[in-house]
Amino acid sequence: MALPPARPAISARRGVASPHVTSAGTRPARSVAPLVLGALGVVFGDIGTSPLYALQTVFALDGGIVEPTSENVYGVVSMVFWSITLIVSAKYLGFILRADNEGEGGVMALAHLAHRSVRFGGRRHALVLVLGVFGGSLFFGDSLITPAISVLSAVEGLEVATPSLGRLVVPLAAAIIVALFAVQRFGTHHVGRFFGPVMVVWFLTLGVLGLVHVVAAPAVLAALSPHHAWSFVLHRPAIAFVAMGATVLAITGAEALYADMGHFGRVPIVWAWFALVFPCLTLNYLGQAQLVLRDSHEIENPFFHLAPEWARLPLVVLATMATIIASQAVISGAYSVARQAERLGFLPRLTVRQTSEQEGGQIYVPSVNWLLLGGVLVLLLTFRASERLATAYGLAVTMDLMLTTTLFCVYAVAALRWRWPQVAAFALVFGTLEVGFFSANIAKVLHGGWLPLTVAVSVATVMTTWARGRELVTARREKLEGPLGPFLDEVHGNAKILRVPGTAVFLHPNKATTPLALRENVHFNHVIHDDVVIVTMETVNVPHVPEDERVVVDDLGDPYDHITHVTARFGFSDHPDIPVALALARDEGVDVDLRDVTWFLSRITVHRSDRPGMGRSRKWLFEVLARNAADPTSYFRLPIGQTVVLGARINF
């Protein structure tokens, strides 16, 4: 199982690390254009494919309760435009993306920014962490639905272009999704480089399709006026309320945009949005509005009817490629959220593969990838239509939006020192709109909305179970290990214990207790190496720790001058490479030859017992998670031929 959380280093020694931890992930000075292109290929796929199904879903709700009258169409499009403007352009790009945890984004990163900013022990201190865990769990629910609904909505265009191929929609969508998840191991850097040009073509196509219809009837530009949305809500409140339940589909992807920030950075995302994505989305929604006003029969699939008949089949191909990219946005975000959760103690060790030498946020997590694939295929084969999936989509999105607003308000008060009038204005503008979206989607719980909520509750249960189980096992482990000082006194005064040449390095979660592998080696083999190094990995609540602050060295002093303690500090986006950290410790005076080191790991096997602290079902879940944690040898990048694993059993 994973090592329990480490205690902070106790005092200043050789190679003292500064208490201020900065980012090691500073981007090199280079052109922003490649990052903009990559962001287009990874970040904006989700929100960029919303025109495929957003307006179609609005006018299909409850058997067509939102009729395609001019007042309704203008009201809906005005709501869509101002929702995108307020939530994406103003809230996320104007405020939320500035709340980055040393370059990393996502609801869990925001939760930890707020968590470390509020007073320790207060009610807000525990609340923000709980909100972050649930927000991260909701994101995993979105990560299942987005690939299914996006790809399905694109492939369903075959029914418009070539109705005889309608029976191939679900099998073809399933094949595309399998292929998408299969190529994830190549990394978002390569995927984004390929997808970026495709998305440029996609957004330009969106813009051109919409522009043609806007030029044909420029009066539709009036829909951009906010008074149409206000009039719609005031004069037709019941219909507007129903429409809001689907209008939120136009802003799905905003949360993925924030979670993916660590892959490319804020500036490329802002440039891509305002220079290309936002204008083209606006034109396309206006074009769909004009089309529906001209011919109400087009509401069945207004997007594909924007194109002339000869262009519909090529548009289906392009839309399918775009929806593959839409899925990429949430998949990449899920990797980032999972790694953050693991490093912050809410998930067991995960195998994480770095896919880019330049961008630290570009990773691949195999276990998350294949779990998502399985869940997406189950959804696809169960719902079998994008219209049915749309009913399951909005609730989780709106809850995630509200959680982000709440956490940012806490962060703004505690860290940014906003005054209460500023916080109230922020909450009033964005919170009111998001609560409206949430209320409109409550009715969908029984019609598919339960699905993302079930996924979120399940993931949150896993996270909280792992965190609580670690606490219980750590307490039992520390009791079994015993204090380090008395053990070393016993070894020092025992002539029966032989000194053997070489250096032994023991990975251990703290300085206070004895590594189990060290204790077992002494008790059973009656030997101790000439030089002993105890290495503690400490995860710091920032994405990256620079090399000059990576290690803290502590000589335990006489009579333990042959025993050294090293704290290796990693951010939650750093890979815990222990040999590299020990090489850095040599510069701080640790005399160690990595070619002549024996690495010792303490492998803990956990078993359920009747001890209090957690229910039996949650203990069973923790036991399963512990058994399936990543292999510590590869996780810490230890040389297999020089590593010895000694086990122990703990009942908890």
TrEMBL record:
Residues 1-26 are annotated as: Disordered. It is a multi-pass membrane protein. InterPro entries: K+_transporter, K_trans_C, K_trans_N, Kup. It catalyses: K(+)(in) + H(+)(in) = K(+)(out) + H(+)(out). Keywords: Cell membrane, Ion transport, Membrane, Potassium, Potassium transport, Symport, Transmembrane, Transmembrane helix, Transport. Residues 36-484 form the K+ potassium transporter integral membrane domain. GO terms for molecular function: potassium ion transmembrane transporter activity; symporter activity. It is found in: Cell membrane; Membrane. The chain crosses the membrane at residues 32-53, 73-93, 126-145, 165-183, 195-218, 238-258, 270-293, 313-338, 363-383, 395-416, 423-443, 449-467. Residues 501-650 form the K+ potassium transporter C-terminal domain. GO terms for cellular component: plasma membrane. Its main location: membrane. It comes from the Bacteria. Transport of potassium into the cell. Likely operates as a K(+):H(+) symporter. Belongs to the HAK/KUP transporter (TC 2.A.72) family. This is Probable potassium transport system protein Kup. The lineage of its organism: Bacteria, Bacillati, Actinomycetota, Actinomycetes, Micrococcales.
